[in-house]
Design goal:
The protein is mainly α and 209 residues long. The chain is built from 10 helices and no strands. The longest helix has 23 residues.
């Protein structure tokens, strides 16, 4: 089947562009960044190898769309986790949501921070990244007793970056199985349900009183 007929079939059944994004997302989930190729993504979507470049301009354009999916899902989880409880409880819930996202979507998670592989100025990436960042920022504002949507000062920004770094680092250690070397850490479930909340308590919550 030639590309024109394949494209017509794709559009007839829905969205060929969306099919390519889904194929790339599935490929990353199965094989990671090292196993990703445009050719394989095209094959899975049922189009010619030239189709991804036609629709996205190349690998960076297609991977940017997948990264945006990741940020959108991360933002959704962070927003949900930040809806209830005290600011300290929200912080702990959002930290857990961040790590669980990485565990659930390791392919997306690793891609999202590979700026060398993405179109950083793409509007969809900027919009979804901001949504995730804003969810954490609102919790820091609440912790500091500032109105929602106000501007963080230097100390507030330092706290925001520190909280993000804590969750991000723990997520990477979990995915890389580095914590498994520490016998007292227990299973992955134990680390998420017990160890990580204890880290948040020690580094942030207890200091907040």
């Amino acid at each position: 089947m030639n590309e024109k007929k394949t494209a017509e079939r794709g559009y007839h059944h829905g969205d060929l562009r969306g099919a390519l994004i889904r194929a790339a997302d599935e490929l990353l989930a199965e094989r990671g960044l090292e196993g990703f190729t445009l050719r394989e993504a095209a094959r899975r979507a049922g189009v010619s190898p030239a189709a991804p470049s036609h629709h996205f301009g190349g690998a960076a354009g297609l991977l940017t769309e997948v990264a945006a999916l990741g940020y959108a899902e991360l933002a959704r989880r962070l927003i949900d986790a930040g809806k209830a409880g005290t600011p300290a409880e929200r912080l702990k819930a959002q930290g857990l949501a961040y790590v669980r996202f990485a565990v659930d979507f390791p392919g997306r998670f690793h891609l999202m921070f590979r700026h060398d592989m993405l179109l950083e100025d793409a509007p969809v990436l900027e919009e979804t990244t901001s949504a995730a960042w804003d969810a954490l920022e609102r919790t820091v504002l609440a912790i500091r007793g500032q109105p929602d949507r106000s501007e963080l000062d230097a100390e507030g920004n330092a706290m925001l970056i520190g909280i993000w770094s804590t969750a991000h680092g723990f997520a990477h250690l979990t995915l890389d199985k580095k914590l498994a070397r520490i016998e007292s850490c227990g299973s992955d479930a134990d680390m998420l349900e017990t160890l990580f909340p204890a880290i948040i308590d020690t580094l942030w919550v207890k200091k907040l009183g």
